[in-house]
Amino acid sequence: MNYCYASKEIDREKAFQPIWSNELNEVFSDVAQYYDRANIFATLGLLNRLRDRFISTIDIQPNHKVLDVCAGTNVIGISLLKKQPELDVYAVDRSVAMQEVGRDRAQRHGFRIKAFICDVHHLPFPDNYFDVVTLQWATRHLRVIDVFSEINRVLKPGGHFHHCDMLRPANKLVEEFYYLYLKAIMGIIPRVFRSGPASLKCRNYFIDAIRMFYSTEELSALLSELGFSQISGHSVLGGTVGIHKARKPQLAAG
């Protein structure tokens, strides 16, 4: 493992582990009922377009086993089932409240998603189990090396990992304007959606987590370090969002 990535992960964990362990569950319990509406608001209505772009990168076939990591309210699983109803979709998340919203949403669409509440750094599935794994809008709250390694483990050889998240813009000017926007929007959302104390307490964290996160290019390089191949990474909205696709290599013959 490249030293700079290992060192960065140590720094991220030192800075944020108390929040990751003790506060984020309360935050997501607080925001679960309005989480999707708040994200649409925060992205000025662009979230659905970003989601459609992400979904368009995912190649799925009937009976594929698909795992959605940090599935939240099951928006991605439902979108994939609309695209291919014969998928076998699994969801993992740490938040019971978010998954309760996701379960109800899937049922309203007539879909069944197999849900597991767990620590996503330790996925409760055997090796080489899934054809496709997705992860979106959550990686900045995780130990990236650990969770990406677990995703590699549960993917079948030749399977694909699809990732989308808010990233740190590579352009410094864009980066500073981005933080100003986030600071402003994080001041507005609690008033619009009447956020509770847990969410209010973590407003600065959500900006700091991006400051210490990766750019699109850095995340591509990290995926390569962890053994993924055929990696593509695309920056969206000036590098504030990155969409990645990577493949677990096939086993060598013989």
Automatic annotation (TrEMBL):
Sorted UniProt keywords: Menaquinone biosynthesis, Methyltransferase, S-adenosyl-L-methionine, Transferase, Ubiquinone
CDD domains: AdoMet_MTases
One Pfam family matching this protein: Ubie_methyltran
GO biological process: menaquinone biosynthetic process; methylation
Cell membrane is among the record's keywords: no
Domain of life, per lineage: Bacteria
SUPFAM superfamilies: S-adenosyl-L-methionine-dependent methyltransferases
GO molecular function, one term: methyltransferase activity
Methyltransferase found in the keyword field: yes
InterPro entries, per the entry: SAM-dependent_MTases_sf, UbiE/COQ5_MeTrFase
Protein name (database record): Ubiquinone/menaquinone biosynthesis methyltransferase
